[in-house]
YbaB/EbfC family nucleoid-associated protein (Rhodococcus indonesiensis), 94 residues
Amino acid sequence: MTEIVESVRTRLGALQDCVAALGVVSGTATSPDGLVRAEVDGNGALTGLWLAEALRGLHTREVTASILATAHEAARVAAAERARLLGELRGALG
């Protein structure tokens, strides 16, 4: 019985740790030219966007494409971190 209780406590601890870590997952990416930086939360929602002054001289389509590509990369980074955390949880739960 003691082994069962300890196993449940260990698994519960792993679950609580994972939930806490998932709550602070974020992703950040910078465009290759360094003019755009995006930050997203663990769900991929944009939480921050930084645009360099040098973007003023570019066409709107170029700026838009850079923003979207950078935000997408930040979301990919966040999703990879979520997947890593969930993989660790699966391993801990056996």
User: Anything to note?
Assistant: The chain has a mean pLDDT of 94. Strands lie at 26-30, 36-41, 46-51. The chain has two helices and three strands.
